[in-house]
């Protein structure tokens, strides 16, 4: 009997090359999808963090700045160690603090940043704590004359608080008297402020509506002509914290300043708001023309 051996055949060289080529194409497509998903995830994380930071800082600044000029002389919680009648007049007439308002601390006050640099804003009010949450030696429920200052240090928006009575030389500092600043938000590219002012003689009534917006260096002349700040416009430019490279980063125009052109090809987002200083407006409405 004649036996036939089973014939076995392998892949040809052409088949192997075609298989390798198809495998490379599929692997390349998978890698491309993974890379794309990673970039998308980082971009989404950067957008989310910037949005969260922007909403937080705008909300916080609004809640704190809106209280500028507040002084309730009838409040049972107001500390009365000093003449609150005179203090009431001072706070109501100085809701926005300017450099030189306090002789012993002439650097405290609102300033206009040079050549588009970030601004600094300082306000006065009656409160239970300063912007850092410090009581500055007062009892838990006591209210006192507070001065809060907001400014950018490097890439960080910070605030520091003061006892207004210490600034005026009426008492010595008690507790947290170093006036060290605390961080409010990081990755700040620029911070700008405009001041909406009113003048009852210019408006011809007691509406206390803003008749214009000016920078901090223009305020002394406004105040000298019996004007007063009744609104604030703030703008802040934040940088995303994720490592995302973006080509053709756009320029940003914050309020009246020239366009800001970030040097880094990262995600940036601009936030703006207008804050009416209701305490000052009510005070101006009560004044006779």
Number of strand segments = 8
Number of alpha- plus pi-helical segments: 6
Order of helices and strands: HHEEEHEEHEHEEH
Q: Report low-confidence residues grouped into runs of 5 or more.
A: none
Describe the structure.
By secondary structure, this protein is an alpha+beta fold. It is built from 6 helices and 8 strands; from the N terminus they run H-H-E-E-E-H-E-E-H-E-H-E-E-H. The strands form 2 sheets. It has a 4-stranded antiparallel sheet with strand order 1-2-3-4. The longest helix is centred in the N-terminal third of the chain and has 53 residues. The radius of gyration is 30 Å and the shape is elongated.
List the helices and strands and how they pair.
Elements (H helix, E strand, L loop, with lengths): L12 H53 L18 H10 L27 E7 L16 E10 L2 E8 H4 L14 E4 L2 E11 L1 H4 L8 E3 L4 H6 L3 E12 L28 E9 L1 H8 L4
Antiparallel strand pairs: 1-2, 2-3, 3-4, 5-6, 5-7, 7-8
